[in-house]
Amino acid sequence: MQLDDLLTRHAAAWAGATRHPFLAGVRDGTLPAPAFAAWLVQDRHFVADLLAFQARLLARAPRHAQPVLAAGAVALVDELGWFDEQAAARGLDLTAAPARATLAYRDLLGRLDAAPVPEALLALWAIERTYLDAWAFAAPAAPGYREFVTHWTNPDFAGYVAGLADAAQREASGADEVFLAVVAAEVAFWASTGAAA
User: Fold this and answer.
1) How many domains does the chain have?
2) What span, in angstroms and rounded, lies between the C-alpha atoms of 184 and 159?
């Protein structure tokens, strides 16, 4: 099985995660700025959770997957710094409590910590592939959101997602169940602000 087969086999679920109304609002400028700001704070919580998950996965991953996982962990550290800069520039409160969808995603990452490495690798690829394709759908974005979409669709990130695909493909296992769990978490996360359900 090729990983991209999952996108075809679960096309409706995939569209829900990568073409969500939240993203359409970013693309056409109809998403209210406060809703995006609230989502951005939640995404910062998620990235911190993802870094912790990825660091633990790196420690138990097979040798062939370690380089891409290590590079991804460094990129997530940099991403947290970028979030801090965005929050300072926009007056966002990064101490705001995680939303229900954020906590649910944290729980999913916790379950993946206990999952076999192949399933965890596949989930990480699904998470990052969803993010890349979702923001590509929102491109080029309305002017107020363009810098974010550009940041999340850059060629380095696309290369990282391709590297994760290679690592996960070698180990692919439990694909459908893990993929659908990630996609469902993504849909809930986009809708977490309540601005575009």
Assistant:
1) 1
2) 24
